[in-house]
Structures are given as C-alpha cells and as structure tokens.
C-alpha cells in the first residue's frame, strides 16, 4: 500500500498547562519546602500526542476544551503554530486544565491535576464532532477526559470502521472492556498488569492466554512498551518483539505520548504494524533527550535520520 504522508488523524483528549516546581526533596504531609525554580509548560496527554502526530506529518484535528483564560488563548496559539487543526477545540467558561508538579533532585515527582476545561468535553459535545471522526484514517485517544466521552468517540469510530488507537492512561477502573472495539491498545508494563492482571514479562510463555484476553476485551493488537527493553506486539498471529532505540535519556515524561502519536501517524498512512512500532520506538526515545513533555518531541526527519544511523 502506498504511504500517504498527509493522513488524517483525529485526537480526542486533554490540554493542560503544567506548573513545575524544582525542589531538593518532596514535602511530607503538612510540610512546606522551598522551590529552586518554577517553570510553565504546555502539557496534557491529548495535546502531547496530537503534537507528536503533527510533527510526523499527519493532518491532525484535536477535539478538546480550553478555558476562556489567558492560558487557553496561549495554548490555542501554540497548537496552531504546530499546524494542528483547532476548529474542534471549544473555548468554555472557566480555567484551562492545570497540573501542579513538584520534582525533586532524584527525578521523583508529586502531581496534582485540575481538569478544568477538560471536564467540559462531554459525550454530547463530542457527538457534535462526529463527522470529523467518521472520515479520519485513525482515532487516537487517552483517558484524561470524561470516560463517557472516550467511549462515545470509540463507538463513532467503530461505526465507520475507523481504526482506534487507545492509550488508556490514566487507567480507569470502569472502562467497558469488551463493549467497544479497540484496534490497537498501547500500554506500558504497569498498565498491562492493571488491565489484564498478568505480568507482560511472561507473555512469551502464555501467548494463548493473552490472545484469549484480547478477544474477550475486543482488542485486535496489544503493544506493551518497556522503556529500554524491546516493545512487545501481540496479535492473533502471535507475539513479536521490536528492539528499543538506544539513547541516554534526560527526561522520560514525553516518551509515551510521543510513541502513541508517531505510531498512529504511520498506522494512518498504511504502514505495516511492525514498521509503525519501529518508528514509534525511535520517536519515543528521541523525546527523552530534552526536558519537558512537548519540548523534546522530534520531527519526522529527525526520526528518519536516527533510524538510518
């Protein structure tokens, strides 16, 4: 199949403005500590993944909500500069989503998330954008917006056979596995454990069991990322491993979202599954070379160069 370098990808998801305080150590309950610095960055899994897809050449439409505050205005302008179609990003009364993050000298963190405008992305609001989903080459979604909205978007995609790529983070205990069809599920080892109740490290010895679980949950393909270890790819045909791209990581916060965005772009272009994973592995690795969820997301040419090296 010929590769379409301008495949349409719809991302349904969150946008947050992150406030990151650098501290020597994280505070105990009731304790006050001084921060050495405070940084303001654009984040939220939906926007992170949309940005990764756009930088890989996809025609990205982001469906979500921003507040009518200065943060919302700044975020919309930021997304537009990245070439993301924001016509389905609604401005609602109130504040844009925020994350307050304390990071200590060891890289450990504490995070408080205020959903803000993200909570306004309701299922009825999502239905207003159904035509965008129904003509997309792929739908990419996470779980930082209301669960009913996630489920509705998947149902709309299922109705028109649009491939659904789900990165179920943060894990939601009430996700209706088996009631909607997921083309590709992207998780890390910890998330795989939570969803399937089994250790992904043992997948090779229990392939048939894992296949059964995928069938029960209506998942066609399972991808398990494992940091520096090879990525596991399980389909009805069997288990494959795709080698990780080796780098000296500086900050891993954006790696997972970059992987999802890059993978979905190549899937939408019609690339073979393992090639999609190879690109995504390299993109996710390169994203760890800079601090910040979006700052390190590589462009397609950077990933191509890394794969050719």
TrEMBL record:
Residues 7-299 form the Carbohydrate kinase PfkB domain. Pathway: Carbohydrate metabolism; D-ribose degradation; D-ribose 5-phosphate from beta-D-ribopyranose: step 2/2. PANTHER family: RIBOKINASE, SUGAR KINASE. This is Ribokinase. It catalyses: D-ribose + ATP = D-ribose 5-phosphate + ADP + H(+). One of its GO terms (biological process) is D-ribose catabolic process. Activated by a monovalent cation that binds near, but not in, the active site. The most likely occupant of the site in vivo is potassium. Ion binding induces a conformational change that may alter substrate affinity. Gene3D superfamilies: 3.40.1190.20. Keywords: ATP-binding, Carbohydrate metabolism, Cytoplasm, Kinase, Magnesium, Metal-binding, Nucleotide-binding, Potassium, Transferase. The gene is rbsK. Requires a divalent cation, most likely magnesium in vivo, as an electrophilic catalyst to aid phosphoryl group transfer. It is the chelate of the metal and the nucleotide that is the actual substrate. InterPro entries: Carboh/pur_kinase_PfkB_CS, PfkB_dom, Ribo/fructo_kinase, Ribokinase, Ribokinase-like. Its EC number is 2.7.1.15. Substrate binds at residues 16-18, 44-48, 144, 257. The active site is at 257 (proton acceptor). Its cofactor is Mg(2+). It comes from Prosthecobacter dejongeii. The keyword Magnesium applies. Catalyzes the phosphorylation of ribose at O-5 in a reaction requiring ATP and magnesium. The resulting D-ribose-5-phosphate can then be used either for sythesis of nucleotides, histidine, and tryptophan, or as a component of the pentose phosphate pathway. One of its GO terms (cellular component) is cytosol. Belongs to the carbohydrate kinase PfkB family. Ribokinase subfamily. K(+) binds at residues 251, 253, 287, 290, 292. It is an enzyme of class 2 (transferase). One of its GO terms (molecular function) is metal ion binding. It is found in: Cytoplasm. ATP binds at residues 188, 256-257, 281. Homodimer.
